Structure formats: C-alpha cells, structure tokens
Amino acid sequence: MERPAWAPPGIDISVPSVSRIYDYYLGGSHNFEVDRQAARRAMEFMPGLPKVMQANRAFMRRAVRHAVAEGVTQFLDIGSGIPTFGNVHEVARAASPEARVVYVDHDPVAVAHSRAVLDGDDRTDIVAADLRKPKEILAAPEVGRLLDLERPVALLLVAVLHFLEDSDDPYAAVAGLRDALAPGSLLILTHASYEGIPLTEEVAGGVVDVYRDIRNPLVMRTGEQIGDFFDGFELLEPGLVSMPDWRPDGPGSEAEGETPEDPYAFSGFGGVGRKA
Length: 276
Fold this sequence. Notes:
Radius of gyration: 17 Å
Structural class: alpha/beta
Shape: globular
Strand order of the largest sheet: 3-2-1-4-5-7-6
Mean pLDDT: 92
Order of helices and strands: HHHEHEHEHHEHEHHEE
Helix content: 25-40%
C-alpha cells in the first residue's frame, strides 16, 4: 500500500482508525481502504451511519454558535478528529473574530493534518493528548497560551465519550475537566445510544461488534447514563435530546447536511450544559 503524503510517518496504515472512519462517513478524503472497509462493514448493519454523523456535525455547529451568542468565545474540543469543512474554529470565528480554539486528539493522523490546516493561525492550535488524562490536557502549553481558564470555556466532547469504556472511568475524566473550568462554562456533548436507532438492538449491535473488532470498543449508553456526564452542569433547554431536536430553528441546519426527516439522524443524544 502506497503511503500518501498527508499520512505521518510511523503510523500503521493497515489498521483502521476511528478518526479516519468518521472522515469517510462525512465524505472526506483522509482515509485508507482499511478504514473504508470497516465503515462499510458497520453500514451493513446500520446503513444510516453517515446521516448520524451529519446530524452530529450540524448539532455541533448550532451549539458553537449558541456558545458565542452567550458570550463564550473560548473552545476546548477534545476528540476533534480530522478537520473537515465547518470545523469549530471556522464556525466560532464566523460568529466572533476573537474566538480561540484548542483541538485535542490522540490520533496521529488527526493531529498531523490539524497542524497542517492550522499552520499560521495564532488563535487556534492542536494538542496530542488523550481524554482519559485530563490533567495532561489542561497542562498543555497550547491550552495555557490560548485559553484563559479563569473565564468561561466551551468544552466540546462530541462523539468521543462512547469510545471510553467504563473501565476508563469517563465520568471522572469529565469531572476533572469540569472542575478546571470557570462558572458559566459550557459542556457540549453528543453520545451514541441504542435509544432512537430505527433498528432492533440486536441488529444495531453489529456496529458495536465492528468497532470492537478494530480494537475501538463503542459503548452504547442509555439516556440516563449520558445525562450523568452533565453532573455539575445545568442542562439548557431543550435538555438531552436527539441531535436534530436540539434547537433545530438555528440558522442553516439543513444547509449543513442535517436531514431531520431521515430516521437515522435521530439516533443517540446531544445536549449543552452550563456550569453554575
């Protein structure tokens, strides 16, 4: 297999990557055949996966615009993945030229490509770190340079927590980040769940098996379990809901690829909470 110029040296391009699979679902070009094969296997069980990802991205954009409207112009996006059109910094910067964004990911392809995209942007940066180690994220020099933790920050955990198993203690990781944030900070979160999927749990479980086979377990939590991530935050209206149902009257949602009439778009949950 020929290594493309954008693939950083040292990574095994014969092993599927969650970030590159997500890129494929969104129609991106930074993925390998091994990633496309895994994605197609998952889509055999749940053909609407690209619609779920589109709804996820559209929710993120609406939530970022809401954050700026609330006066929050600092963003910490953990599990940011490979940059595609309409990233957090693009959406936030369109609403406020002063917006500052720190992306965090542990996938070397996502980090390398982000650095290339962000080169020369002095208000946006990328950190190579893992959500399971919140202290390392908070201590990163990029965070110290760009974010003032004494002021409100929007923390994005979008489509990432479902890749942390219970043994990783994801609630403690979120709590560690929460405790470092100033009052008025926002938690913007989406999470996969069997609830809302227009399939039986047995059929949808085939997707879980695919991710387990590529050593990236996908944990489908209940709405109640997902709501527990908002401990210490006040959920904003309309609460924890399917992603197209979170403030759908925001500008341009359908133009951004969200198709609320597609039943797959209503799979899983999204919500925004404010720290008191």
